[in-house]
Amino acid sequence: MSDCNTRIIAPSVLASDWGQVGAEVKRADEAGADWIHLDVMDGHFVENISFGPQFVSAVRPHTELTLDVHLMITHPNKYLEEFVKAGSDRITVHVESDHDVSATLASIGEAGCGRGLALNPATPFEEVLPFLDQIDLLLVMTVVPGFGGQSFMEEETMPKVAAASAYRDEHGLEYHIEVDGGIDAETVHIAGKHGSNVMVAGTALYGKDDMAGAIQQMRE
Q1: What element of type H or E holds 119?
Q2: Nearest residue to 173 via CA among 129, 132, 115
């Protein structure tokens, strides 16, 4: 696992031009991205539908970067094998989804993927406490999941990032702390100050002509 204090920039393909997704993934790669973030939505767990494992497998040949796959779906355990086969390097599931969280995390690890756990802005930090010693990454959603372009929810989410960072230090754990939603050149520093090191950004990166400059700005 890479150092949990190293800042990692993960452009979200959700904000890219899907009509030329291969070129868009390469653009992020060449601009200096660390990971590629893929948001999977099923229209049930969240009020939106994005893409499934076939899309992940379409992205895979275009980059050797880590594919950071975020499953916003009701029954993630039922689809793990398909997402592993599609080329996911890291799979994040929600604590709020309908599944045995520990068993799902164990299955992800057994498949050789990084084990991620996510929580929504309305979910108390205490909900993820039983699982923090079973994960490689904690994703604190900084908007209500489902749609891009929302504003960063600082008051609701930054205390959770800080709590996750403190808990990790107190218990000698090594999970990354990822934030996703409303991340741009300003909010990235707020999240970093509270203890997050993995920054998922969509329009703030894919919406820029100079993605390399935008990534560098987020890194600094």
Answers
A1: strand 114-119
A2: 132
d(CA 6, CA 57): 28
CA dist 18 → 22, 55, 56, 90, 147 (Å): 8, 10, 12, 21, 16
Position 46 in a domain: yes
Residue 119: domain span: 8-219
Q: Is residue 1 part of a domain?
A: no
Chain centroid to Cα 14, Å, comes to 12
Active site residue 39: yes
- Beta-carbon count within 10 A of 103 CB: 10
Domain harbouring 183, CATH code: 3.20.20.70
Is there a domain that residue 79 lies in? yes
Judge whether 165 lies within some domain: yes
Look up 209 and say whether it is catalytic. Answer: no
Query: How many domains in the chain?
Result: 1
Annotated catalytic residue, options 34, 42, 68, 180: 180
**Is the Cβ–Cβ distance between 161 and 128 less than 8 Å?**
no
Which of 39, 42, 68, 136 does the annotation list as catalytic?
Answer: 39
Averages of pLDDT over runs of 10 residues in the chain (220 residues) are 85 95 97 98 93 97 98 97 98 98 98 98 97 98 82 96 98 97 95 98 96 96
